[in-house]
User: What shape does this take?
Amino acid sequence: MEARIFKPAKSAMQSGRGNTKDWVLEFVNPDAKRRLDPLMGWTGIDDMSGQVRLHFDTREQAIAYAEREGLKFTVEETRERKRLVKSYSENFSASRKQPWTH
Assistant: This one.
């Protein structure tokens, strides 16, 4: 069984960085076959392991768990977001690249 270890990115629906501090181990099964329910039209899958997400405080704990359980895993490193720091007064500075208008 394969697993993916990563640190989740923040949701587009939130302004803060909630739920982004933990490391997540998620099972990946590329051979799982999806099927279409003929009555409702829903997509189903027989492999329930794709719905399991384990949360860990550190990357090392997630790797230790995967090694202890004999899982084949990949670790996706996090990319820190670039933060553009500027103040409100810079909107009105004379050295703006584009003129300020309403």
